[in-house]
Every structure is written in structure tokens, then in C-alpha cells.
Amino acid sequence: MTESEFITAADRTLAAIGEALDAALEASDVDLDWSLNDGILEIECDDGSKLIVNRHVPNREIWVASRSGGFHFRSTDGLWRDTRSGDALGAALAALLRAQAGLPVALPPLAAPAP
Questions:
Q1: Which end of the chain is flanked by fewer CB atoms within 10 Å, N or C?
Q2: What DSSP letter does each residue of 95-114 carry, written as one string?
Q3: Would you put residue 90 in left (φ > 0), alpha (ψ -120 to 50) or beta?
């Protein structure tokens, strides 16, 4: 995939995560703030901790940093999958948000282009 194709796909994924966060926040009393700027989605939890989801263009990956560690997701079989565990980005991020922020969020399948 070209750099341009990757950026378009990653930005689409980050926007879908933002939409899912908004929907989850409307249905919850959890207090967190999020922003999306230039390929970096920053989620600030009520306790001051953060989750960062960003595109990493050189490796064509989406990276997630959380209190429990860092994770790299690469396009595999049409989804963003963790390079170590094989977990899908949506499921992994939902688990991280539940553990770190107490926010139950339903993330759609986060499609990735062919490598």
C-alpha cells in the first residue's frame, strides 16, 4: 500500500474510533476527553491518564499507547491486527478503554487495506 493509501485508511479508522467514543460517552456517565489532530487520537481519562492511538507512516501501522503498554497494529486479513497477539484493533482498544477509563465502547470492525 502506498503512503497515501495508508494515511487515508488510518485516518478513516481514527475517525471511526472517535465516533464510537462519542456514542459510548452519550450512553455513559464516564468523563473523558478526546481529540484527533494530524493522525493522533488522544484520549484523556478522568484520572489524568491517557491512551494515544496514532498512525505510524514508516511502518504502515497504527500504534496504541496505554497505561498497560504499547501495541502495534498492521493490516492483516482486512483488519488492523496486533503484530504480537493477532488481536483486532477494535477488540483490543475496547478492552483497554474499559480497563483504563471504565468506558464500555462498542467499536465496529476496523477495516484495513491490503498491505
A1: C
A2: HHHHHHH-----PPP-B---
A3: alpha
Instruction: Evaluate whether 93 touches 62 at the Cβ level (below 8 Å).
Output: no
In tens digits, the chain (115 residues) has pLDDT values of 899 999 999 999 999 999 999 999 999 999 999 999 999 999 999 999 999 999 999 999 999 999 999 999 999 999 999 999 999 999 999 999 999 999 999 998 899 988 7
Question: How big is the chain, counted in residues?
Answer: 115
Rg, C-alpha atoms of the chain: 13
Cell numbers representing residue 53 in the block: 492511538
pTM here is: 0.94
Closest CA to 102 of 38, 24, 26, 10: 24
DSSP classification of residue 88 = B
- Chain centroid to Cα 75, Å, comes to 13
Please give the Cα distance from 105 to 17 (Å, whole number). 9
Neighbouring C-beta atoms of residue 33, cutoff 10 Å: 12
